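Hi team,

Filling in the usual template for the complex we talked about on Friday. All components are listed, including any nucleic acid strands or ligand strings, so the model treats them as one assembly.

SUBMITTER: L.P.
PURPOSE: interface mapping
COMPONENTS: two
RESIDUES: 227
SEQUENCES:
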Amino acid sequence: GAGVSQSPSNKVTEKGKDVELRCDPISGHTALYWYRQSLGQGLEFLIYFQGNSAPDKSGLPSDRFSAERTGGSVSTLTIQRTQQEDSAVYLCASSQLGGTSTDTQYFGPGTRLTVL
Amino acid sequence: ILNVEQSPQSLHVQEGDSTNFTCSFPSSNFYALHWYRWETAKSPEALFVMTLNGDEKKKGRISATLNTKEGYSYLYIKGSQPEDSATYLCAFPDTGNQFYFGTGTSLTVIP
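RESULT (copied from the run log):
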């Protein structure tokens, strides 16, 4: 079946602009994660959605970052007033159950964001 | 924030060589340890989920061991091939929500 997809694959924007990144998880997966990888850093947790529960937003680095997940499926990560330090690869992952430490996450190909 | 470390940061080996690298994680409150392979221009791909001390998992030429008491896992690749070139990531979940990833080991296999 189809894997996790993300769009766009690349995004170049100017400092101060808003951007939206989209993630389509695997159908039927209840959990969805957003991560980012800045240059030379490991994957950094941003936010986690589990079914209809309130999302775990504890990893969002500032209030310029927000995310939503509509209908328990597609998710959008929005970055307002982008800064150069927001440049990174943003990865989305979904898992079947979520909320368990052994559940495998399936990753999308990522969106490479460059803020000029 | 939990500290998950991987070493070495990068590795170049000749085709046919065997190699291994390390993931270190907190030895307290262990739930599981995940290994992923991330090839350039592709999505990270799950390799193993390890849960028990002394666990050993194998997938083809790749295997992994786990020591939860001392807080480390080794990933071994036997007879490296160019297609093994990738970044290998480990991830340590503190609960079901948050997974802490290491910075990865970048492996290049030279033909």
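MY TAKE: The mean pLDDT of chain A is 92. Chain A has no helices and ten strands.

Thanks, L.
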